[in-house]
Amino acid sequence: MTLIQGLVVRSVGSQYSIRTNEGILHAQLRGKLRLLESSSTNPVVVGDWVDLDNDEVLTISAVHDRKNKFSRKAIGNENQEQLLAANIDQLVIVSSVKSPTIRYQFIDRCMVSAEAFRIPVHLIFTKTDLVKNLQDLQDEIEDSYLQSADSIHLVNLVSSPLPISIKNLFEGRMSLLTGLSGVGKSTLIKQLIPESKVKIGITSVKWDQGKHTTSFAELHEVAPGTDIIDTPGLREFALHDVEAWELSHFFREMVPYLDGCKYSKCSHTHEPVCAVKAAVENGEISVRRYESYLLIYEDLLSKED
Description:
Rossmann fold; 3 domains; 15 strands
């Protein structure tokens, strides 16, 4: 039996592709790892470092400890977690400004999940050529996210060269790229890696939704030491393992005010002497982000009853 270590670079069902010193190898899960599926739909995910046993059939025998993970609640099963990636250096959320329109709730939920593991978050807004007053939109986006995102980029991926700032954003890092279907993730990867084989889809005008062009998670190597994990386009994002009382700890702009609240588990909804509500009223916290917090808080609270 030969023990091999490697990085999971592709996941399709129960089949995994592993980058090793011997090249790309293909493996399945060992039985004991399948037992972990009771709590997670996929106990092994792209970005995981794993041990492989080459005993007749190549199998994944162990998963190394993760420095972090990015996940959501599994669709159709409230009790299970769906892992999207592991061991990432940053999360890059891609959103088009139109066709489909910005879904702030989706972005905010992704940011909460990343903040739970202190994963840096960068926002890329695409299709800027489709809006008439770009400055007003930029002001709206910056009002929401200047305090909570590590960087914000507005780009036209179709008719303009990719800005150097975007290229530098990915350099030397393991990045997870996520977003709704049709926002331009595949186009971005094509710009960064022209030889990649990712497909570029179109957006349904009737439903204002993109079509899935990525059907499985896959890691793309941009250059040695620079990797991008591309996930299938998502249409919803339910938070996993986040309780209502702790939600404000994952809204980065609220954290400096938490100690100023009268109650240690202040919900920032109705309590007197709430420093967060005061900051919103004083314009120190975005009203839109606060309203998003309230929606997520009520959703989490309803599932705890």
